[in-house]
Fold each of these.
Amino acid sequence: MPAKLSIEPRLLLGPGPSPVHERILEALARPTLGHLDPQFLRIMDEVSEGLRKAFGTRNRMTFPISGTGSAGMEAALANVVEPGDRVIIGVNGVFGGRLVEMAKRMGAEVVAVEAEWGSIVPPERLLEALRAHPDTRVLAVVHAETSTGVRQPLDEIGAAVSRTDTLLLVDAVTSLGGLPVEVDKIGIDVCYSGTQKCLGVPPGLAPITFSARAMDRIATRRAPCQSWYLDVNLIAAYLGEERRYHHTAPINMVYALHEGLTMVEEDGLEARWRRHAEVGAALQAAMVERGFQLFAQEGYRLPQLTSASLPGGREEGPLRKALLEQHGIEVGGGLGPAKGKIWRVGLMGSGATHQVVERLLKAIDALIPRS
Ligand SMILES: *Cc1c(COP(=O)(O)O)cnc(C)c1O
């Protein structure tokens, strides 16, 4: 084993992780505390408060799950779904598909409402499914489908679902901190995210929030949550007055998230949304000008994740490799039906700046001469 870890830095412009600011790396390197140390408990409380602001919620049960975005997904489903429950899931990409897979493993009766990759799941089709299955316990959608670059509209779904006994579950892994995620305003019951996308923190934590309605549902479960580790009732006993040991919080990652949320607050949420919107629009215009073809449905394109096929039908793989090796820039390739066909370019967190766009375009122009 070499004496020292040697890492060539990259400019991370893929679907995540996003670039991590020095301030956050410094926070990670602070002295590790015990998870019951009053200093740490205060930091944890501040993180919950910062997450409430970012999620646009007053939900008491708001905290970071120990694990990446997929652990947030698993925690969201495992707590509100029981075997035999009907769950409607919008599927227009990888992450909708992952929700289906997890819900099925939990014994749910899944109704998948599918739409083409690159399109939204039309809200009226989800609501039709809900009318056809009024016993549905949970309706789940992905707000920002990172596999395609599509932004799912939520307002109409939120308004309709809140009038029923069905809970609305939303994947906000790629939207939190980059797009408005207004949990209380929309009427979302369970919403989870990940630290390594628009929050600009390394991967490792999954912010999550549960509405009072969701907590009532959890309180009346027929059997305890099948996952002991992700059981929100057990975690609540640690986060609440009792401070009862459940599992050891990933202390230094919580420092990093604290610093990331401080940076969100300094930016101001709205200014941060605007920055992501402007920079994403600028990149998309510049890519179209260079002959790239945008993959996501017009009018529903995520600014923080641009998916596009390459100019003149060029193969994406070798150019993506050259971008990494010659220019130190990472972008993502396509998944599923878009495999081998598109690039996925993320401008998230501290990667969402005009300087970053310029650096990327310069590298693209060096690799693909403009005709
Ligand atoms: C990245 C992502 C996830 C999964 O997060 P991991 O941190 O990779 O576990 C889930 N949903 C969406 C929409 C994502 O973009």
Amino acid sequence: MLIKKTRSWELPESAVTPESVFKDRRKILKGLAGGTILGAAAGPLMAGGAVAAAPENDPSSHLYPVARNPLYTAQREMTPEGIAATYNNFYEYGSHKEIYELAQQLRTRPWDVKIDGMVDKEFTIGFDDLVAQMPLEERVYRHRCVERWSMVVPWSGFPLSALVNLAKPKNDAKYIKMVTFLDKSMAPGQKEFWWPWAYTEGLTMEEAMNDLSFIATGIYGHPLPAQHGAPIRLAVPWKYGFKAVKSIVQFTFTDERPTTFWEASNANEYGFWANVNPDVRHPRWSQSEERVLGGGTVPTQIYNGYGEFVADLYKGMDKTERLFM
Ligand SMILES: Nc1nc2c(c(=O)[nH]1)N[C@H]1C(S)=C(S)[C@@H](COP(=O)(O)O)O[C@H]1N2
Ligand SMILES: [Mo]
């Protein structure tokens, strides 16, 4: 029987809004009952703990936790790890939220990251070599999915600008394109041929150099578990969650705006900019409010509340292009 300690920020289980999360947590409890990890009172404080943490043998574990950057405050309660880690979007493992177990098929070593396109010199670097050179910090960011759920999580990682500086792009590079791995043998979702694999996202160079643009390699003080996009993913909290591309293997510098996975799937609903905006409806639903994972509904803010950091980026831009998803 799990002895669950309730921390001050945790809501009673019954207050968890999404039915599926609640059901899932019960399923985990059932599935793992008798397992050592839940047997001890000192075990994970939340259901899902067993899959929340990165594998014990993750070679980057020793890097975490890292110091929190106090500049970024979410002004909202942190999402319990067991909820964030068991309610995910990762279409490589299925088009539903309960992919955390399937995602454990992801093999994160060896993991090479290719830097190419309009750079001084193209190169490939192993993930562990890359992360060892980067200035790691923790940032608590809000995350707003286009589907109207949101969370607050502590990412560990480094500013995207640090990677750009390492890459040494040419002056005429205008965009950075980021691509997820392509390997059906560890991502059954990629057998679904109707999706435009590999998952691709992009930012303008100006956006990429903005202080808020962050590359996450960890979460909750440990390496990213598979379902959050191990070993390296993007976090751009003023944009809808689908911009936050997971499990990146390639950064390409280019002067052409990349076609993203979601644009290729449905350009009428998901565009390149994807800045959070409560006043612009998704064609099928209002974006004025969001359901907070863990409980409650709050109004959605322009740029997800990060306007002070990013509003200048879009000054003078055609409003319809900027604001339409
Ligand atoms: N490769 C890849 N990256 C992805 C996705 C995906 O399906 N595949 N989903 C996106 C969406 S829609 C969201 S909301 C976030 C979810 O991140 P999380 O599961 O870590 O909360 O990941 C984004 N990155
Ligand atoms: Mo999303």
Amino acid sequence: MNKSTGIPFLDLVTLHADLEDELCGVLKQTVRTAGFIGGLMVEGFEAEFATFCDAQCCVGVGSGTDALRFALVAAGVEPGAIVVTVPNTFIATTEAITQAGGIPYFVDVDERTYNMDPEKLREFLETECARDAISKRTFHKASGASVAAVVPVHLYGQMADMDSIMELAEHYHLEVIEDACQAHGAQYFSKIEQRWRSAGSIGKAAAFSFYPGKNLGACGEAGAITTNDAELAKRVRMLRDHGQSRKYFHDIEGYNGRLDSIQAGFLAVKLRHLAEWNTQRTAHAGRYNELLAEYADSIAVPYEPASSRAVYHLYVVRVAERDAVQRRLGAAGIGTAIHYPVPLHLQKAYQRLGYERGDFPIAEAVADRILSLPMFPSLTDEQQRRVVDELAAAASQVALGDFAMAVEPR
Ligand SMILES: *Cc1c(COP(=O)(O)O)cnc(C)c1O
């Protein structure tokens, strides 16, 4: 492979080269003041990120996984309670549920958006659960476990159908924690409220990851929770800092899950560019859609409903013989990835949950066909053309195919 003509899946070097002076300024300031933990850098970033998400509070933490775990604990998930999510997400979603004491329970996804299908959630709640008239709590009839929360994942930068999910959650008294780890700045048009709402402003709380490859990435590990509930924010502040209400006075047991000041400083610099980067990603997605339109019989482009303004953390197509297509692209010097190849209910780590192949047919069918194409703000028109040319050639070479979903359209 000729390096000069290769196209990476993700180019983080170009992005940071433009910001080098500003980022080094943060580093110098932090080293000179030795203000490594807490302080104005953290508080400043938290305030700016809350504003960006249209949320009242933001609490910086060590990672997106911390953010999910702390949000679930602070929202009151009790040991043994069921937390409902989707099987086609990064394992951090379910690790956080387990580590908060909950039991992950999956519902299948919508075949077009790959996000939680509210009808599947409704079906689970209506047929397998019951509400206790006195406590008003919902419990799972077969196991007797209480059902505490729902974690919709705004996958690939597109928000889940929050109106329907929030309505169900209200009816069944469930907390909603948004996994917004891929959706910084994504928006959803709420028909109930007749307005656009931002990821991280709708649920009881939301978790964001600032892993370097995310739309807003730190120069290391970082994450945050957003919420409109000041009490919940306060509990998360305690959880991230060993349960302290003040130094060495521990009201509860917590964790070491603080956001580094240096990372907060880096994030504040990068946050100023996030809206522009998201606009560039959206434009690239539109360009891919245009270029791929003529190959609609062998390549399915992402579906974006009218109620969504996605921020394209990932641009994910669906093809037949995905592995062969990916190999051909790799041989042509084009970096791609799969998010995610094995749904969580089929992972070895979750054998104990007792799921089988066939339990979530849409998530399983999707996993075999999806392919994430190069997507980053500095992606050029010429690079996109080459990706599409190579992809079209690769997709036409494989057995004509079953790139369509194996399920009947509704
Ligand atoms: C990245 C990610 C996480 C975890 O974030 P970390 O910062 O890596 O801990 C959780 N959920 C989803 C959907 C993610 O993409």
Amino acid sequence: MPTTTAHRTCPICDAVCGLRLVLDEGRVLSVTGDQEDPFSKGYICPKGASLGKIEGDPDRLRVPMIREGDRWREASWDEAFRRVETGLTKVIETHGRDAVGVYFGNPTYHTMAGFMYRQPLAQVLNTRNVYSASTIDQQPKHVSTGFMFGDPYAIAVPDLDRTDYLLIIGANPLESHGSLCAAPDFPRRLKALRRRGGTVVAVDPRRTRTAEFADRHLPIRPGTDAGLLFGIIHTLFAENLTSVDLDVRGLPELRELAEEFTPEAVEVVSGVPADEIVRLARELAAAPTAAVYTRIGTSTAEFGTVTQWLVDTVNILTGNFDRPGGVMFTRTAALEIFRTGQPFGTGRWHSRVRGLPETLGELPVATLADEIETEGEGQVRALISIAGNLVLSAPNGPRLDRALPGLDFMVCVDPYLNETTKHADVILPPPRMTQTPHYDFLLLIVAVRNYTRFSPQITPLDDDQRSEAEILARLLLIAGGHGAEADPAAADAMIIDGLLQGVTSAPGSPFADVDVAALSAGLTGDSGPERMLDAMLKLGPYDLSLAELRAHPHGIDLGPLEPRLKELITTPSGLVELAPPELVADVDRLRRALAGPPGEFLLIGRRQLRSNNSWLHNTAPLVGGSNRCTLHVNPADVARLGLGDKAIVRSATGELVVPVEPTDRIMPGVVSLPHGWGHQGSAQRVAADHPGVNANTLTDESKVDALSGNAVFNGVPVTLAPYAEG
Ligand SMILES: Nc1nc2c(c(=O)[nH]1)N[C@H]1C(S)=C(S)[C@@H](COP(=O)(O)OP(=O)(O)OC[C@H]3O[C@@H](n4cnc5c(=O)[nH]c(N)nc54)[C@H](O)[C@@H]3O)O[C@H]1N2
Ligand SMILES: Nc1nc2c(c(=O)[nH]1)N[C@H]1C(S)=C(S)[C@@H](COP(=O)(O)OP(=O)(O)OC[C@H]3O[C@@H](n4cnc5c(=O)[nH]c(N)nc54)[C@H](O)[C@@H]3O)O[C@H]1N2
Ligand code: SF4
Ligand SMILES: [Mo]
């Protein structure tokens, strides 16, 4: 049987693994790790290995769908785009541009089209109601780095392959494979760390796989990490263990802030023993090199931004910031157009109903339902949702489930009819992964080595399919008033020309003498995003091009990370701000919260190896077994409350009946439920057979991290009661 072999980057999670695919007439027969990829070296996880099954899912949509009442029918692309034009234009003409909301979901951080069209689409829509997965994920990191370094994208990653000491707080990379830290084969990298005599410590309310692997696991009461970090900072000052080798400002203020957070005081609120806090400070200071790394456990929490700030601060105080073995900045092959050099600030506008500040051009997802439900000028009446499943992903998702039917118009770009897209008027499905070129514009910004790899489209589109690039370009043209028939190439030219003009004409631009017309004419690529990539590579620091990347199908290693903070700092003072007033102002709120009574039970999340947020539950090999939607409860709590197979969990926003899984992997007083489930009655047949419950029934959209507006998924107060069947 004639088969073909192809290589590409896995687009599912943040680990950017290289894959080797064997295909037969476009159908994926097998997937293995790409041994020749210099970064992932053959590593693959069960999700990557299932890529053929995932993209071959018979429930995936191939052609546009239009809803008439509660019935769906297939439609031609022309009809679907005309319907979008009519729907959006009517809302804009009647209610103005702010009446259109747009949501960019998690996969838009992975796709080339998501990267290219996201900003231009938001600009052309010219609405205040821009939302994205950032505010249910990493917005606290952008805000803290924005205030500390001036650059909201100055995200330092642990230098995993050289560090001697890794403190992991609220991340579980052995199951999530890393996040804001692209490091294929995290397990091998952690093993190598241990083998060279290094130490790994995990701080987590659960004994995760990562915690189990670590030298030490310190259980912590959810939501108290900022206290722990202040305790470490307190000790560093008290014992004269600081060794700051950067140009910083705010050391005295920081020292004063940390004064009250003695290890003994922090023990009381966090449950981490005082001597362990002192030991962490001493070890971080004494290790030849050390890195503190944190993610979702502290970012989607009530003090998300303050915690991200304190993590970078500990790395700075121990002399581990921007140096080999500490935390460092990647230098990407594609020109870093996201570093604008503009002064950082939040709150250029505020949300209409709750007055929450804008950050990086967007408003918090936690207030989208308010904006849809609350009448008045600027009410959201139409929604464009690209690669998102907010009913399962947003805090109090069920409220959105009730709010979305009230919209005048909704269009989704999504391969599935699911809990969210079922409310749309039109669904525009992108083609399969192997029919899509791939380049990780965003994930490679946070890679633990400088590395680049382009994956060309493997299988051509059929006549009745459209690339995601074309879909988004046409939405952009419709939003800009050019109509459903406009040529998508015009949108591409506009974006790429705008980019080149912007880059070359910026004050002090190193590209001032670049001949834009010649560069533009010489770009290669089969699509807008490919030509944009070619431009960014040609202007990038390694002098590469798309042709060069095509000639290296397994990727190119561009070497270990090198110090580069000096070129990134854009604070008005030119210094690293250790005590930015905006962040310091939130410490009072922290103090009060830590002094308050803890809830009886605190709910936290849990990522599962064979899931990815809300959309992989329709692939048979990935569901069942350990991948089930259960509530982890400590056996002592199970006994104390007399819980049986199921429990009723109640929060301020809702209640759920959930199967109980007693496990001593979770500390008493804390319960854990994975998100992304809740597929009752889903059109996805496998998912409907393993529905689980929607964890975001319990999370409270009225609570956000004050500085970033980020949703709070961890540390949600709940009560538990036995559930009697019938
Ligand atoms: N309780 C709780 N809630 C959480 C979290 C938590 O830890 N706890 N985590 C949060 C985090 S970190 C995130 S990132 C969000 C994610 O939340 P969302 O942004 O909603 O992303 P997903 O749940 O991954 O849903 C992705 C959608 O995109 C579709 N899709 C898949 N591939 C493609 C593609 O190539 N193109 C297009 N157009 N669509 C595609 C899928 O069918 C699915 O509908 O969830 C958040 N929600
Ligand atoms: N298999 C799989 N991989 C994924 C995903 C997935 O759904 N499944 N999602 C992807 C996405 S969108 C993201 S953003 C990343 C996230 O990547 P990670 O952040 O590594 O993933 P989580 O498993 O959410 O890890 C958060 C950890 O924080 C702990 N935690 C909860 N509350 C607290 C707290 O208050 N303090 C502390 N110290 N810890 C706490 C949880 O127990 C959990 O172990 O993963 C990505 N990779
Ligand atoms: S770890 Fe992530 S990138 Fe690697 S194969 Fe698995 S899903 Fe794909
Ligand atoms: Mo995420």
